Amino acid sequence: MRFGFLPPFCLSLLLSTAFVLQARTAPRTARSATVLSANDAHSILRDGVQVLPKPLGPDTLSILDLQPSGLWAVRSSIDVPASVIGPPSALTLTPDGRIALAASASKPDPADRRIVPDDRISVIDLSGPRPRVIQQVTSAPGTTTLRLTPDRKHVLAANGAGGVLTWFRFDGRHLGARKTIALPVENGFPGGLAITPDGKRALVSLWKGDRVLVLHIDGDDIALAPDPLEIGPGPWNIRLTRDGHYAVMGILGHGEGLPGALSVLDLTASPIREIQRVRVPNAPEGLDISADGRYVAVVSQNGSALAPSSPRYHDRGIVTVFSLRDGHLAQLAQAPGTLWPQGLVFAPDGRTILVQGVMDRALRTLSWNGSALTVVGDTILPGGGANIERQR
Q: What PANTHER family does UniProt report for this protein, alphabetically (predicted)?
């Protein structure tokens, strides 16, 4: 078929029709998943001891975005209590990314120039043009890890300094009635938490108690199960595979500066049992499993929380990536982390890993292609990066 010259009005009509057809048939771009950083502005290290900085600024919660440069950076921040005490998992989001909950295990006492326990949980609405705090409640001293049940009707909180768990009702926007759960180990320091995908069990690691406890969940009821897993030294952050078959847990130690480990737990066994342990640099903190379940990433302090005079001191942490297959970890790559690192997550695309630093107040972006781990660069946080989480 031959086409002759088209008059201008025909050409305009043809282009308009094509545009409409393209708009109707083109796939919609999905809303990017939310990534948050909770930043502690009241804690720094001096000779291996946590002290207040000068000047003293507010703790913050920041929404993070991917920049055209390939770096992740802060888009906006609001004042929200936050803390480096406990695993870097004192932050959680609802699956739709519209509501966040942030806990604070410590706060400043400016009058006495010291850091004291905190017990606040803040609920933040992320749905508007700027985030806003819509509720703040108290839990128990040293409130750290928060986990939302799969049905989004309850929140479980670990309270390290208080030695208890707190079980809240949740209506999707506000925390309601609560129950305090006493634990069988005095001063055991509950830190890491995980809730199985079916919502029927929860795990809690006792850092000082060197064990993992299991709780059974039935609606509003939650109760401790017998037969804890004795494991140490210092079980810490916990992540579960999507199917709930395995847990990957950091073994932190007790401040000796010795190498740490990752432990793989088989949750289908009764009682649960450890099936593998792999060595990582000192004090593994931030821990995540990629969305596709193929990789595990962890950032270790690598002696950065020790006094500089210690022979085990290093200023910078180390990020290690493992493959995960049938409950088995195999190391693939390492790269330098931040200064006194805390939280770590895979970015939503799975090709980027984000890690926070407290002493440098930095967010480090690393690229990951399945075999090579490369530092892309750093951006600034408004406080020490304490907790980080992505929409799941």
A: DIHYDRO-HEME D1 DEHYDROGENASE, PROTEIN NIRF
Q: Give yes or no for a contact between 148 and 132, defined as CB atoms under 8 angstroms apart.
A: no
300 near 314, Cβ under 8 Å? no
pLDDT category at 10 given cuts 50, 70, 90 is very low
Yes or no: say if 103 and 48 are a contact pair by the CB < 8 Å rule.
no
Give tens-digit pLDDT for 237-281. Answer: 999 999 999 999 999 999 989 999 999 999 999 999 999 999 999
**193-221 pLDDT tens trace:** 999 999 999 999 999 999 999 999 999 99
Q: 11-14 — which CB contacts under 8 Å span 24+ positions?
A: none
The radius of gyration computed from the CA coordinates of the chain, to the nearest angstrom, equals: 23
Using CB atoms within 10 Å of the CB of residue 376, give its burial: 0 to 12 exposed, 13 to 18 middle, 19+ buried: middle
CB 8 within 8 A of CB 16: no
Write down the domain spans for the chain. 32-390
User: Do residues 248 and 232 make contact, with C-beta atoms less than 8 angstroms apart?
Assistant: no
Residue 71, classed as helix, strand or coil, is coil
Q: How many CB atoms lie within 10 A of CB 278?
A: 18
Q: Which CATH class is domain 32-390?
A: mainly beta
**Separation in Å, CA 41 to CA 133, 258, 345, 361:** 18, 28, 21, 9
What pLDDT score does 32 carry?
76
pLDDT band at 143, cuts 50/70/90? Answer: very high
> CA angle, corner 238, sides to 234 and 244, nearest 5?
140
Query: Tell me, what DSSP letter sits at residue 259?
Result: -
User: CB neighbours of 157 closer than 8 A, spacing ≥ 6?
Assistant: 103, 121, 139, 140, 143, 144, 145, 146, 165, 166, 167, 168, 193
Bridge partner residues of 195 (DSSP) = 202
At residue 17, the 3 state secondary structure works out as helix
Sorted by sequence, the CB contacts under 8 Å of residue 198 that are 6+ apart come out as 150, 244
